[in-house]
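COURSE: Structural Biology Practicum
ASSIGNMENT: Worksheet 4, Part C
STUDENT ID: 0417
INSTRUCTIONS: Below are two proteins. For each, the amino acid sequence is given first, followed by its structure token string. Answer the questions at the end about the second protein only.

PROTEIN I
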Amino acid sequence: MEKPILFNTAMVQAIQKRAKTSTRRPIKKDIADFLDIGDCLQCVDNQGKAFNINYPYQVGDTLYVRETFYKTEHENYPYFYKADKVSVIDIKWKPSIHMPRKAARLFLKVTDVRIERLQDITEEHAIKEGCEGNICEHPSEDDGYCPDCDNCGYTEPPQLQFLYLWDSIYSKQGYGWKDNPYVWVIEFEKVK
């Protein structure tokens, strides 16, 4: 099945470089506990009320990426995309939510969908989210200790970059890092 998915400009660029192969999206329901029964989640909220939540995507679904764009009048180049850093004066970009299917140029095949707590993200998964971290150059020290990274290898680890990215998108909506919401984890591969 083909479904739309929204990405901001920076994340579209990461997908284009194949640096992003995963995305997390908040589950916008109050969940205290859940049971995965295959095609949906049987959930209980903090008041003990039971309800079901359907998975937003299934393994094998094809997602077309909706991104910030501009519709031109040119027959051979009908669309410009903000992720391409087009240098055109006075462009009035249209938000990704308004992008029609025919303007899509990026397609993703869903390889996994699961639920987890936001703060359970690992270094490996933060990298799959397109957050590579800032690698430390390890200045030479006599005792082998690097004060810049505390010998972890990063001056800013991938999880910290992911935290900043997440909060820039979702904290004002009530799904900030500190709230540790349940999230959909959607893994994908770029396809033609």
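PROTEIN II
(use this one for the questions)
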Amino acid sequence: MRLLPFMAFLTLTAAILPAQDEEYDKRVRHATETLHDIMATPDKAIPRGLLNRARCLAVVPGMKKAAFVVGGEYGRGYALCRTEEGWSAPAPIRLAGGSFGLQLGAESTDIVFLVTNDRGMGHLLSDKFKIGADAAVAAGPVGRDAAADTDILMHAEILSWSRTRGIFAGVSLDGTVVEHDESEAKKLYGRPMSNHEILSGDINTAEVSLPLVRELDEIAPARLRVREH
């Protein structure tokens, strides 16, 4: 009986470890490509109105999900926030969660989420928070739905989407832990740095991550955001 949980642990570990081992320059490139591909089809993408009003955006390419009795998920990506000067340098983040039940399978999913207001941004700056428990979350709408844009911003601090096997749709990340990726930040910026330091806009963007910042500024210019009153 004790063998089953142990085998489940090995299966889950084998599935999610590749996400940890990928080099950060490849991960930045994958994050940039993910954002570009998602927004390339306007009718099936994140509504521009939401992007233009979002306080921050995070993209986690290839988040690993695996399940064998014990389920889990793990991914690494980058968050950027609007500042007075434009989009901030990317702050490396990790997403982690888990579930229990009769499950079997493994898959890779791209995750994008928007932080819609300053309160949500405060959670992101804190280096670690739990979506759903600390910050209100909702599955984001897809396509040109202006009415939904206004409506949904009143009820959620975070809007989230996923893309699996080419299908892009709103998804709830309720229960997922978002935390600062200290080791990745050290690789990018040469020393340990907090999310607050990076996302405040006082840090220059590392050369390797410039394409990600440029891609985001192309689809959602930083100065278009409607400031909260």
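ANSWER KEY EXCERPT:
Q1: Residues 3-222 form one domain.
Q2: The beta strands are 56-83, 86-87, 91-115, 128-130, 137-139, 158-164, 167-170, 177-180.
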